[in-house]
Amino acid sequence: MMRRGIDGSLARQGPRGKLVAVSAAFVIAALAGGAIAAGAIESGRAPSFTVTTIDGKTFTLATQRGKVVVFDFLQAHCSSCAEQVPVLSRSASRFASKRVEVLVLDVSGENAGALRSYYRGTLRASKRLLVAVDKSLRVAQRYRVIAVGMTYVVGRDGRVRWQGLWLGKENALLRAIAQAAAG
Q: Is residue 28 helix, strand or coil?
């Protein structure tokens, strides 16, 4: 996870800093009662990115035009993140017929094999839920992610339709996906 230093530059946090930041973000989200806009993307086009999934496939946001894409920045072995995975997995299956792709961008730094074992094995995520490593946090930096658990819903036109933290507020995420899929 990245944090801003006094001079505004991005600096890596160690594992302990990540846990503190994750915990603080989820407490803030819970107190706020749901989604929190990150301010990273202002109603414009979603910056494109390319990642390799844990199943060895290339995923490029720009080539998903005509589909709704939901992506969530999570961290393997984070208990709060693990609570989000079943919801994302069910959403991937529920909205598949409406041309919705759901992707987890894992920021833990673990390799694809370890992530495959964790997401597909331990968490039993369906193969409809795409999972990829955000190597060197490149995608997180492009989206100015401020907390693990940050989620984006990109409409068929490539514009960000919703962004926020939704842990414990599954309906906020489902509404955002349904609205983007209806449009």
A: helix
